[in-house]
Each structure stands twice: as C-alpha cells, then as structure tokens.
Write a structure and sequence with these properties.
mainly alpha; 6-stranded mixed beta sheet; 8 strands; about 60% helix; about 5% strand
C-alpha cells in the first residue's frame, strides 16, 4: 500500500471509531432498538427469534409455544449479526461492543470512496482524501453511522459490491478478462448476498450484476465462455452465502424469503404496516382509487406532501447531496456515464430510487430510501468532487481569468470543508448519550405490570430494550380486534400513547370497549388497559 493510502487508512480508522462510538452511545429509535435487542438474544444463544412483533406485515398467525416469533421477517439480519459478533468477541452486551463492526463498516466505506477516486482521478490524491472524509462525516448520516441499524453495514457491503462489479466489468470490456478475473465475480456474488442480508433491496445488487453480464454477452465484451463463467460464479456465490438464510426461513415460515413486505406496494397509507389482520392487496388498492391513487401515492413519495424536502426528492437533495452537492454529483455522473466501472453504481442508483418511489412508495419515503442510499455515498462523494472539477473547467473556458487547477483545488476543499461542518452540526444536535437510568415512563410500567406481562404498545422494541417485556405493536385497526390479537399473540395489556395513536384506534383512548379495564397511570396522555376477556 502506498504511503498516502496507508496514512488515509490509519486516520480513517480513528475517525470512524470517533464517528460511531463518540456520537451515538445507545439506541434511540425503533430500528436501532430492534437490531440491538436481536443482537443480544443471538449473543446469548437465543437464535433468530424475538418475543415481540413491531409490525403485522408478514407476521406469523400465532405465537410459538416458547413465547417467541421468528425474527427478521421484515428487516434483514446482517446488522443484528454484526452487533452480536461484537458482543461475542468482547464478552459484553454494552452498546459500544455492538458498534465494533459498525465502526469497521464505516471505515471500509471510506476506503471504497478513496479507492473509487483513485480509479476515476488517478492524478489527484487530494480527490481520494476528500471523498473519504466526506463519507466519514456523512452529512445527515452523521447521526446514524454509529447506531445499530443498516446504514454503515450497507454503505460497506452495498458499496463494496458495486465497486467489485465495476472492476469486473471494466476487465471484461478491456480484454483483461482472463481467469484471474473470475475470483472478482465470486467476490461480487458474496457481497451481493451480504448486501441482501443487510436490506431486502440488496436483492437489486444481484439483479444489477446479472443484467450487466447479460448485456456483456449480447454485446460480446468478452468470450461467451468467460461471461457465462463469470455469471455462474456471481450467482453461485450469492446462492451459497444466502443458503443458510434460505434454510432458516424454510423451517420457520415455509418460504426461502419473507414475502410479507411485498404487500407494502399496495398500501393505502403508511399505517397499513400495522393493520391487523393484514389485508393490503392489488385488488383492494385498485378498488380504493385505481390508477388515480397509484399516480397520487407515487407522486407524493417523489415530491412529498408536507414541503419540498419531505419526499424522496428531498432525500436526494438533503441527504445524498448534502443540500449543495447534488448538482455536482449529477454533473460528475453524466460526464462519466460511459465509464464502465460506474455502470453498476449508476444502474443501482436509478433502480433504488425508482423502487422506493414507484414500487414501495410508503416505506420508501418513510425511511427506505434514506437507508438504501447509504450504499451510494462512497460514489456520490467522489462524483461530487469530480463534478466540481467539471464545473470549474466549464467556467474557465468562458472566463480566461480563471486558473482551473487553482480553482478546482479551492472549490474541492471548500466542498469537503462544508460537508465536515454540516456533519459536525448535525452530530452535535443528534447525539445519543449513554444512560443507565430507565426513563420514567418505563419505570412506571415496570412497577405497574407483572414481570411476565405481554404488552401491546406503540414501540414494542423500545419496551423490550428497557423492561424485557414482550408483546406486539398497537394495530392500526379498530379496538374490536384487540381480543383476537390477544388470543393469537398471548397479550395481556394495552398501552395507548395519545401522541402516537392511529385514527382507527383513537376511540379506545377515551371510550374503551368493555373488555379493556383501565389501570392507574400518572401521565394523562397515556392509557394502560388490562385485556379482560378472550376473543368471542
């Protein structure tokens, strides 16, 4: 490794440790609680199961005799497995132990940015340093890099898959496709599987690789034998890595992959994620509004319904483009659209934005794209800097007083410095401190409810994290379903928080049904009920 790269690797490792453990020291939202809880259970030898349901999409019909459900039927298991590995090797369940591989993931993502810049701009080491620093800062991802979620793992595994695919394609199209290239396709297949095990949309990595190899076969980039061998290795290693997950799912739910999440394509509102029983379907969607509803929901996913930056366009502008970098990224990408190395990234970028807007609009706009776009960040960082150089050259051709080299150096540094300041400001306002003190809300619930209570609550992941109590999420359904839910999932109590109630369940707050007996609770914005009768 050359000296500049070695220095960057060392300093980036230190920075990644600071960015992860220094800013986020505890889980703070449902996804993070979920992955951390699952990691603890895995580290203790409990396997891939959980004592609560946070969604009814794809949920099993009943609870198992041991009081658990198969875990990761909506989210994928990689982040939990990574966190569990950190706990296992340190012998600790502390949040910092769970962050061990998250820190290395962020480090790896910055190295991908560095290596990508060296391939696309070999003359300027500066571009590689700045790109790596931009990824480490992350802009709006600064608040997420260190949490027990998919952000850092997907940036590494998804970004790594696109990087290796790009190298493999470049070799196929430049007569460098000897047998030494074949291990690259095997590695790409393994990374595609790991990306899929991190997020469901990681499946798109597999489809991107297959599509580009088939294109190469049609356009005769290399011998048919070489391309077919590459395809076999790519798909074969994907299947090999995925095989344990397929086997687990076949035993737990009867299918190789959980398919419940695909119903989200036909949600009428985001709250359909919590409807019980789950009824989302194409027929129901079409009856509710047909083509007009399809256009409306997809447009709202793209543009948002509560301001310019509230949709997926806003995610691209504010998160991926860090507000000012978006036009530069697009310029850099357009100028290099014929660069075969970038084709996997470009195809995935187009595909993921289309999927999160057209296929899965509600999950996409409520966090799906935010999570998935982390895999794009190593490439966007490089293209933003290269687009800066392109813009400078365009201006220099029209203003002779400009010196392109000096102007590029200045504006590239300014862009990098801006992202560092933005990241620092976001991190300073979004840090999560460590605390051994249980919030008063959960303290009172612990004192009020039996030690073996199973609770229906707005955030069962957080409830389990603080109290160890299992249960299920409050459904986005009328309160009449509560007895049947209680019987199916062995639930004893309902906790309704006024701020998070769905329209369907809201009447239960002031006018509970006869099967709900109210228990005393100090906060009038909360109702705690005991479920007193079985399902009719």
């Amino acid at each position: 490794m050359k000296r500049p790269a070695s220095w960057f690797a060392i300093l980036a490792l230190i920075a990644s440790l600071v960015m992860t453990s220094g800013i986020v020291r505890a889980p703070a939202f449902t996804d993070a609680y979920y992955h951390y809880n699952a990691a603890v259970r895995i580290a203790r030898g409990g396997g891939l199961n959980e004592p609560y349901l946070w969604t009814y999409t794809g949920a099993p019909a009943t609870i198992s005799p041991d009081g658990t459900f198969p875990s990761h039927l909506y989210w994928m298991p990689m982040s939990s497995l990574m966190a569990a590995f950190g706990m296992a090797i340190t012998g600790s369940e502390a949040f910092m132990a769970a962050q061990f591989l998250l820190s290395l993931s962020l480090w790896g993502a910055s190295l991908i940015a560095y290596a990508t810049a060296r391939r696309l701009d070999a003359a300027q080491v500066r571009t590689a340093w700045y790109a790596g620093i931009i990824v480490l800062g992350g802009g709006f991802y600064a608040r997420f890099w260190g949490t027990t979620d998919t952000f850092a793992p997907y940036a590494l595994l998804g970004g790594g898959c696109m990087f290796v695919l790009g190298i493999g394609l470049h070799r196929l199209t430049t007569a460098q496709s000897g047998r030494a290239t074949l291990p690259l396709w095997a590695l790409a297949g393994g990374l595609a599987a790991c990306a899929h095990l991190t997020r469901p949309d990681g499946l798109l990595m597999l489809l991107v690789g297959i599509a580009l190899l088939l294109l190469g076969l049609v356009r005769s980039w290399a011998s048919a034998r070489m391309i077919l061998a590459s395809l076999a290795l790519f798909a074969g290693l994907y299947l090999l890595v995925m095989l344990p997950w397929f086997a687990r799912n076949l035993g737990a739910i009867g299918t190789p992959l959980p398919l419940g999440g695909t119903a989200s394509a036909w949600f009428l509102t985001y709250d359909d994620l919590f409807v019980w029983p789950q009824t989302a379907s194409l027929g129901k969607f079409w009856s509710a509004g047909g083509l007009g509803l399809f256009v409306q929901t997809r447009w709202e996913a793209f543009a948002g319904n509560s301001g310019l930056l509230s949709g997926n366009l806003g995610t691209f502008i504010a998160v991926e483009g860090m507000i000012v970098m978006g036009p530069l990224m697009l310029l850099g990408a357009w100028k290099r659209r014929r660069e075969v190395f970038l084709w996997p990234f470009l195809l995935f970028a187009i595909g993921i934005h289309a999927a999160m807007t057209l296929a899965f609009p509600f999950p996409g706009v409520r966090g799906g794209l935010l999570h998935a776009a982390s895999a794009l960040m190593p490439f966007w960082a490089v293209l933003g800097l290269l687009g800066t150089a392109d813009a400078v050259l365009w201006v220099a051709k029209r203003r002779r007083s400009w010196r392109p080299a000096s102007a590029t150096a200045f504006f590239s540094f300014a862009l990098m410095a801006y992202t560092v300041v933005l990241s620092a400001l976001i991190a300073s306002r979004a840090g999560v401190p460590a605390s051994d003190v249980m919030p008063s809300f959960y303290q009172e619930l612990t004192a009020l409810l039996p030690a073996d209570a199973r609770v229906m609550i707005n955030d069962p992941s957080a409830l389990y994290y603080y109290t160890g109590l299992g249960g299920a999420v409050v459904p986005a359904s009328p309160q009449d379903v509560i007895p049947a839910l209680a019987e199916a999932y062995d639930l004893d109590y309902v906790v309704l928080e006024q701020a998070g109630l769905t329209v369907q369940m809201a009447p239960a707050f002031e006018s509970p049904a006869a099967f709900l007996r109210r228990l005393p609770f100090s906060d009038e914005r909360v109702r705690v009920y005991e479920i007193t009768s079985p399902a009719p």
